[in-house]
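1st attempt posting a full record on here, be nice pls
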Amino acid sequence: QVQLVESGGGLVQAGGSLRLSCAASERTFSSNVMGWFRQAPGSEREFVAAITWSTGNTYYADFVKGRFTISGENAKNTVYLQMNSLKPEETAVYYCAVGPFGGTTTNKYYYWGQGTQVTVSS
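the predicted structure (as tokens):
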């Protein structure tokens, strides 16, 4: 199975920035798409952004467009999520996940990282 190692979470002031990283142990058919989700306490896990390795296409949730950027580094099987202008309501555990086809729902992703905590203070 694909193993995912996440890093970059932490505490940031509202309006600040963080850069999350997710390194995959391998890139296979099952990990063609790498995405980021987030989950706040008591809330559903929601889609944030994704990137497709085979095409380079990127996808974003409407609420992060213009503020977040997802990118990939092929040689390292690593995906980054640059988060700018962070808002307190975006405090959540951010998860990296991979799947063969991608999508905006959790069931489209087969393997998940451990999550990294992002806390945005007001």
